[in-house]
Amino acid sequence: HRRMWAYTAGFTVLPHVGGFVGWFLNRKDMPGWYEKLKKPSWCPSRKVFPVAWTVLYTGMGYASYLIWNDLGGCSSKAIIPLGLYGAQLALNWAWPPFFFGIHNLKMALIDILCLDGLVIGTMCSWYHINKVATLLMVPYLGWLAMATCLTIRIWKDNPEPKPSKTE
Predict the structure, then answer these.
(1) Which end of the chain has the lower number of beta carbons within 10 A, N or C?
(2) How far is CA 82 from CA 24, 86, 102, in A?
(3) pTM for the whole thing?
(4) Considering the chain, what percentage of its residues have pLDDT values greater than 70?
């Protein structure tokens, strides 16, 4: 029982690790630069994001544990479902450095569009394994839909400055 609790906790906590590292590395740039961006009226308050991501990371982490457990651990059957999950998690963790770290709105947009596809692929691969795990990903996909629309609007409304021509 102790070992299963350790696996459950490990899978559940794992997404938070990258989220925390992304926040920690970019925390200084977030308030100043982000506040100056032109954002749509429906953009959530900055205070909502840490709460939302805590809930979403917990749900997706536990869901990944359910899939891992149902497939008997790191078996050959787990390669695609957990590989897709790992790939989407990597893209999730890459978004803040693109957006907040290097202020590259275009790369952040490309990242989140690929992330959307991988999350849908993950959910499709999970559906026949564990429907509860798939349902735990639904709020995440909903939040990503909003975040994708927000990223598109910020990218469109905050064009990158053109490099000045020097002669």
Answers:
(1) C
(2) 26, 6, 29
(3) 0.86
(4) 89
